Amino acid sequence: MIFFVYSMLAFHPQLDFSGQGNWGKGAQTSMDVSQYIIYIFTFFFILYSMSAFLKSRKKEFGIVMMLGMSVLQLRRLVFLENVVIGLASTIAGIGTGLLLSKGMLMLGTSVLALEQPLAFYWPVRAAWFTFAAFALLFVFISLFTAVILRSGTLIDLLKGSAKPKPEPKASAGLAILAAALLAAGYIAAFVVKGVVVIMALLPVALVVSVGTYFLFTQLSVYIIHKLKNRQSLYRSKTNMITLSDLAYRMKDNARMFFLVAIISTVAFCAIGTLVGLKSFLSGFVSASTAAMKYESYAGNKEQERHTALIERELTEAGIAYKPYVIRKKYALDEEKVRRFALIPATDYERLTGERATLGEREALLFYSENVNFGEETGPMPDSFPMRDGTVLDIRENAAMPASLAQITYADVLVVPDAAYEAQPASDDDSISYVYDVEDWPSTLAVAKRLMEQLQRNGEHHSFMARAYELNQLHQSFGQILLTGLFIGAVFFVAAGSFLYLRLYADLEHDRVQYRAITKLGLTEGELSKIVSTQIGLLFFVPIVVALIHGAVALNTLQNTFNANLVKESALVLGSFAAIQIVYFLIIRAGYVRKLKNVL
Amino acid sequence: MLEVRNVSKVYEGKIAYQALSNLSLTVPKEQFVGIMGPSGSGKTTLLNVVSTIDKPTSGQVIIDGKETNRMNKRQLALFRRRELGFVFQDFNLLQTLTVKENIIFPLTLDNVSVKEQDARVHRIAEKLGIAHILNKRTYEISGGQSQRTAIARAIIHDPKLILADEPTGNLDSKAAKDVLETLQMLNREEGATMMMVTHDPQAASYCDRVIFIKDGALYRELRKSGSRQMFSRKLWAYCPPLGGRKMNFRQFAVKNVFRNMRLYAAYFSAAHSRS
Ligand SMILES: Nc1ncnc2c1ncn2[C@@H]1O[C@H](COP(=O)(O)OP(=O)(O)OP(=O)(O)O)[C@@H](O)[C@H]1O
Ligand SMILES: [Mg+2]
């Protein structure tokens, strides 16, 4: 069903990006790729659930075989069963997908912040595609399960899942190795900065993955073993039954824990990165774009008409604004590497509302600190040669305030008016007409109209509006974000479902066991406690590990982008944790109820 | 010590089945009572009701002056693990625990100190001859050893009332004798009240009193007088009218045919049409 809804989105005619240049093509490809990922993932998921289902029925198979059913017949039985189940669930999936699709499309629209809602359409292509893909998948899985059945003798089948297993053992060496690997990976992740991150990414991911694997298969069993040896702890209250059960399950569950932890980590990272990147870009755009700005370059004859138009539109829309006019001339510094925008002191004072108080031969330097992605820019000069031979002393050297950053990307020199006038004019010179609007989000409609009339980049001018630029960003980023969120959500749901399946595979065994203990005099409170502890560990151990991995990864990412992702990552990780808690509570309640029913 | 008053038990189902009908019974302190009866006569059901695992449909079970139907679930659970000991027909050992851990399980729930736990488990294991398998797992031991483990678990907390469902069903005569003598010793030395279900007149001869059940109601009762051997012979004499093993099998076979009526019908009609 998930797959269908997604492919419906992917095939949506209004979301065909392939015609929209590079950016659109990238988005389209990423949607295609994620479709394959989801498909592959679904495949493994279904395979896993089918084999869990078959395992729980091993005994039944053993009995029918003992009663004389041939292996061939049995395999045909299983194959047919699977095909029927598969067909039914595919059709049911497409059906519910259709029913939910209106909602999904609406959700998609709002998540993407798209302007026209995605229209509902009759997704014939998506339906066929889904159907074919899943028919193939189920046939394949049916063949697969039939093969799984072949292994195992009759006695194995008869003993089924209740086949006794020796108590799992863990090696101390591997347990220490697990701790060491994880520590090494984390330290590396914390230490590396900047560009090195990209190079360190793969080895660190590998080391941490291996560490995580041993963490679950060895370290956890080892810790439980140590706990079991603490007799006074082990042999009191319900600890004995909880711990020994846990030791048994840990090994069984280790591989699944590992999978879930890694999958969830990937989901966290993907979503965290996307959300972080988006807010980083939004922040960047809104910090570097004025509420509305008309830039007029040398030789512009329409400047009067255009600025009048902007002012009229704003007034008509009833939007209060403060206009500023800032003149700029560009000049290179002594070494001819750094380009500065010269701004007359009076314009500067008007724009920022601060006094410049410059002497005749003095200047203020403001450097931009936005776009340096960890790269070091060389030292700033302490004097500046004007074209007419005078040299200005740089009195102050500071980071650029936002209002200046919105006018130019270059570093800024504020010079005395006289010095500015003395500087010869050049083709690079420009005048910024800045319209400061307090309530800038409300200017979107006006900005759109203006953008149509003025064009973003004219021959002698350019026009920018913060509301418009942000809107553009959301539009194009939304697609990718949706894809990412969707994949993240799919992985997360899948991880949860793995846990759920695992739990229900154990239900039968648990029932027998808890029935026995209850007869011996276990109170319901104690039963709930044992079950809660066990399910809790099952649910939270992999997720907590994933959260820690995710936090470390996002921290590293933050170092790469030189951006502060704390808020976003906290949001992402927090919401995952919250969902997981809700998930846990629901499943625990259901499980305890199921157990109590049969007692 | 134990008083069963007008207890009835009806198993609800597609066809409601009355497993116990208006059964009354009193067991004084320190008595060793045996319960015999044909398969399906309601012995396990009676034991379950007495042990508060199952609730009677009507009637009361009073143990040591306490009306068990007045207790809530929690109280019942605590009562079971402190005052009662069971040996189940199917053992109910916990797979994930070792033999020793299984035996001390009731003690751990009540936070008895580790030292005390060890002391008791060793004393009992010696007595039951399972000291050498204490660290084995439940799937590594034989049926008889499982049975003795279950007995050890039932008596480790010195319960006031011990209920045993065929505790010797899986044992050879030598092992059975050991177990029965252990139970008898518990009864004589520790003063435990006991109720034991058995099919074996030899085993029943260890009891002070044997109650026969048929179709969920009391049928007859024998008290020991004289030696165990004499009692045993008396019991053998009483068994045939209740149905020996042959009877049991015949009953079973007939019941089975009725149960599978539709299956047979389908089978025979198919065979008929083929021929
Ligand atoms: N849970 C149940 N639901 C319905 N009927 C049951 C249930 N348990 C037992 N019975 C029926 O109640 C009757 C008495 O069963 P019970 O287990 O008490 O017999 P028993 O005397 O212990 O037999 P055995 O000597 O074979 O152990 C049987 O006819 C059985 O079919
Ligand atoms: Mg029975």
Automatic annotation (TrEMBL), chain A:
InterPro entries given in the database record: ABC-4_Integral_Memb_Prot, ABC3_permease_C, ABC_permease_BceB-typ
Localization (cell): Cell membrane
Membrane-crossing residue ranges in chain numbering: 36-56, 77-100, 126-149, 170-192, 198-224, 256-277, 480-501, 537-557, 569-587
Membrane topology qualifier: Multi-pass membrane protein
Keyword Cell membrane (UniProt): yes
Pfam families: FtsX
Positions of the ABC3 transporter permease C-terminal domain: 37-150
Keywords of this entry: Cell membrane, Membrane, Transmembrane, Transmembrane helix, Transport
Family affiliation: Belongs to the ABC-4 integral membrane protein family.
Protein name: ABC transporter permease
Species this protein is from: Paenibacillus cisolokensis
Automatic annotation (TrEMBL), chain B:
Key words of the record: ATP-binding, Nucleotide-binding, Transport
Domain (ABC transporter) ranges: 2-240
Record has Cytoplasm as a keyword: no
UniProt cross-references to InterPro entries, sorted A to Z: AAA+_ATPase, ABC_transporter-like_ATP-bd, MacB-like_ATP-bd, P-loop_NTPase
GO molecular function list: ATP binding
Pfam family, one: ABC_tran
Signal peptide positions on this chain: none
Domain of life: Bacteria
Family: Belongs to the ABC transporter superfamily.
Protein species of origin: Paenibacillus cisolokensis
Keyword GTP-binding: no
Protein name: ABC transporter ATP-binding protein
SMART domains in the cross-refs: AAA
